[in-house]
């Protein structure tokens, strides 16, 4: 993929500036409809989800007290995995977006909530709400694109290190919460120079993350296993498994949101002086949905409605499904592609892109069973040769 | 003069030390939540929880007033008759706080207390409580508070002037203390109550029964037929009012008229009033309010309290009585100017200051920066 601005078949070429502003007005109206009708049913919804999640977590942890019996281990681990997913996705992510601040309940508020995650809520809110949601899919600005460790665009020069990016991506998926914490700290950038390393603000944030990780680890890997007595090790394994399951799940959902093939990225320059309509348009083109059942939507924290979420990050998540048809109509009306597909398809598409970009531009598309030996030889040369060799072979 | 620094007490009660230790361990188990978050699932009214209450019943008094029976949490402290309680209730999913006088007798066998609410036009909370609240609803509470109470030393003669729902704190006093005050100190009680018609008198039957039994002298003023009550009209109804200690509760117009009359007579110190809303005298020019710590900026007009504007924008604000009494809402004003809606007084802060202002009765008077 190439940033939208460099595409020969620019998908927004047919829109006039007036069209783009009109899209903005129509979206504002959809948003206002929901704002005006928020009420008791919505409040009941989030309280019910929180109630179910807490009871599920308590119940699962109680079952795990006997986790040396395999059925208890399986049941408890499954329950705890689901509880952790609910807690991060439909509850934590959305509360921290301020989606429920309007209820004025200090217990369910973006400024007071803390979640079951390595990254402290305060730091995540900054990197996620302010940076990712503002600079969605802008290369070089939106760190969610590849988390600073991956090649996410053809224009990024290919180097052999990228061959390993599918591996990095998988490791990052397994330990996603730590990846997020590192990325909220901008660890790569901040560890680079002594000045940055010793910056008191950075050190304070680092300390907060370590403290949070300490508490989380103590809970999952010390206190609950100890409570399980003879089931110490099985409970530890169960908690580890639940954390990995949750990490893999949330990583997959988030990859589906912005990374499937066909989702657009944008140049840094392109957002200078961006109007509200243009910002909306970027969110429309830079997000992808997951189709599926109601349970699927809840388990993804309604990020299955990533398009709607990115247009209106602070609307209550339970309402995204209701406005989705209106948003889709708007895409159709203006001849834009509403990107939606079932989860397996979106995950496969996102992984395809990770693999494709781990290889030199065009390599994967050009490779067929017949020319495979020649292509592999070329890849070998590019991997072992210097930059000059790479440039020559790439342009050949 | 020598000052002794109290030594840290060695003998901290073992029980509370044990409780603290248990709580610490429980926090390790429940992090990032608190043990209370789980205990609330089981018993929101338990001791140690944030103070809450459960609505047990809603009993209709008149066509637009109802008595709400509330079972308070275990940490509830008994009120003094005449005091009010602040109640936070979710209306259309939004938590709103209001103050209501407690009307019940102390020490009810069922452990509940009651408030009596009159639905006012456009009143979100009052209409919700009177017409739509279902038993079982859990509400947030503060401890009872308020100065509208009889003094230890009962006056020989008392006058209660009330209008509409203004009868509620007085009913709390009459139900609990009128018999005791009459029998021990022979207190002579006159109640003047104003309502549109006889049917609109909240607690009408009970007041008339008290009058019939000779416990009080009751004067009902039915304004639909007889016109509004004011200081002059009252002086005719109660010729000896100068000899009485007076408690008044009702709409702002009535209270102001009484205050003028009492001041005119030179007996202002014998009048106690209870308000449920601040009286807005002067509005300002409005301005941009910046909340430094949350990084939010709002344009607020000169008639809206900063508290209301901030809450409407989704900010979580400290709040209290919402009428400028309790100081539960104060926040530091770092820079700028606010106007007190009750008297028009402007408070300014230079950069770096931290002038504490009551956000519930302060409107923006130009750009201001509030530390929150």
Separation, N- and C-terminal Cα atoms of chain B: 41 Å
Which class of the largest domain in chain B in CATH terms? Alpha Beta
Rg from alpha-carbon coordinates of chain B:
24 Å
The CATH architecture category of the largest domain in chain B equals 3-Layer(aba) Sandwich
Q: Work out the helix count of chain B.
A: 9
Secondary-structure element string of chain B: HHEEEEEHEEHEHEHHEHEEEHEEEE
Please provide the count of β strands of chain B.
17
Radius of gyration of chain A, whole Å: 23 Å
- Amount of helix of chain B: 25-40%
The greatest inter-chain interface is formed by: A-B, 33 and 21 residues
Biggest sheet architecture of chain B? 6 strands, antiparallel
Description:
The complex is a heterodimer of chains A (396) and B (372). Helices cover 62% and strands 2% of the residues of chain A. Chain A is mostly helical and 396 residues long. The longest helix of chain A is centred in the middle third of the chain and has 28 residues, at 200-227. The radius of gyration of chain A is 23 Å and the shape is globular. With 372 residues, chain B is of the alpha/beta class. Chain B folds into three domains: 52-141, Translation factors (Elongation Factor Tu (Ef-tu), domain 3), CATH 2.40.30.10; 157-274, 3-Layer(aba) Sandwich (Rossmann fold), CATH 3.40.50; 284-370, Roll (Ubiquitin-like (UB roll)), CATH 3.10.20. Chain B contains nine helices and 17 strands. Chain B has helices spanning 14-30, 35-42, 124-132, 167-185, 204-212, 223-226, 231-237, 252-264, 306-312; strands spanning 52-62, 65-72, 84-91, 94-101, 113-118, 138-141, 157-163, 188-195, 217-222, 245-249, 271-274, 287-291, 296-300, 330-340, 346-349, 355-358, 362-370. In chain B, strand 12 (287-291) and strand 13 (296-300) form a beta hairpin. Chain B is globular. The chains are: A mainly alpha (396), B alpha/beta (372).
